[in-house]
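[stage:ingest] chain + small molecule (flavin-adenine dinucleotide)
[stage:ingest] validated
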Amino acid sequence: MRAAAGEKQIVVKSWDGTFVTHPRAHAKPTSIDDVVAIMRDPERYPAPVRARGSGHSPANCGEADGGTIVDMRGMDRILDVGEDTITAEGGALYIDLAKELERRGLQLHVNTEIGCLTIGSGACCATKDASMPGEHGQISAYVVGMKIVTPSGDVLEVTEDDPELLQAARSSYGLFGIVCEVTIRARPLQQLSVEHRTFRVAQFADLLPELIATDASLMFYLFPFVDRVSVEFRQYVGDARGPGAERPNRTTWKLRNFTWRTVAPGAARLAEACIPWRPARYQLLNWFDSSLHVALDRLLRSPVTLPPDQMIRYPDRAGFTGFTSSIWGFPEPVFGRALNEYCDFVRRYDRDRKWRANMLAVGYRVDHDTSSLLSYSYDGPVLTIDPVCTGTAGWVDFLDSFNGFCSDRGASPLLNQTRGVTREMARRAFGDRLDTLEAHRRRIDPADRVLSDFFRAVLPAQTPAGDVAGPVS
Ligand SMILES: Cc1cc2nc3c(=O)[nH]c(=O)nc-3n(C[C@H](O)[C@H](O)[C@H](O)COP(=O)(O)OP(=O)(O)OC[C@H]3O[C@@H](n4cnc5c(N)ncnc54)[C@H](O)[C@@H]3O)c2cc1C
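[stage:predict] done
[stage:export] tokens:
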């Protein structure tokens, strides 16, 4: 085991440097036994003990001030590939699972645009991708087994034999301990068609029921300042290894990924750096957005691609083209109206506060999903709004207002991907499911060894006697 503990200050930053934590110990396990040893040595590895995957979460959920960060990237082995499952260590990258499956004519069900989240985080935190017809849009929904090293240092195996515990573990956010192994379902590799069509915002909101009824997934790029929504439709069109399978186009997603990962954030950062006069800067970005939606419609279409090609392997550090986002999922019935109101909201915010996000927003339709206790689509299908920005001064204030806007409309946050969620907002979104999670957590971690201040602030408040208090408001 490579580990360092001591008095000298340790600094651990999130991927883009937004969040900085100062743990007293920074452990780098390479086996499940190492993780057991960490949990059993509170003197060398003080609480809170928090795993770190790739540090990509745009919320402060990886914070472990005064405690221990357990860097999982040394545990990245793929352990087994079955007929319809794959098992890997918790620090393995999702894109590496996808590539291994592809070699064997298999694929993951959910192919997120981010490839470098770790499977340990994907199993126990919230994720998003547009649901393919008849499927879920959250990675954890397909997790059928986890080996968790609990705060006492025991190994807890969670499987489909205990559906209630599995449902809770799929949104346990490290609060049951460190996920060291994950088994997730796979399916035969499919061919995927993709196309984009652009609408005016109000037109898109009106057409939503019709678009949802088509047999395609629905993701969108939203450009509120030029009144456009570019909708991405994807469909499975057949078995990629079947007799009539066509040769897939491997450049369509490369182009999308290059634009998303490099061109769009690069343009925003260059505009911020080179054009001090605000009206000119945003005029240029409006022009960029208008070109982008035209390019999306014309270039990002293909009748045959492969699902794993959608994933992006981001660099280890964000650098110049880093960006951040924050997300809320709105119940489908209220979404059309909420989207129009969101566009009014950001335009009003821009006028009154002289601030706007320098990138677009995106959104996903995620199907009804009760597989995890804190699923943001637990009560029915949702559509999300995720503003994206390079994190300029003003972003956090904007999110404070945005969070209120969303929570007031009955939207749900993703605790690892929505910045600034309050206990009241969490309660409004998840109701008494939070108490159920908390009851599991207190049974597994009675001494709060893995409970950080971040999660303490959103979970049900503790009374002095240690009982769980009721709703905060
Ligand atoms: C550029 C960019 C693009 C993104 N695109 C997408 C996207 O397309 N879809 C999507 O769903 N998300 C996306 N995200 C968000 C990101 O995927 C999620 O926040 C994800 O949880 C990050 O995984 P990670 O491995 O970096 O986990 P971390 O951020 O390191 O950790 C997240 C939380 O999980 C805990 N944790 C981590 N590993 C373990 C473990 N093994 N056991 C127990 N607890 C653990 C940590 O303590 C922390 O609380 C994106 C983020 C960025 C920055």
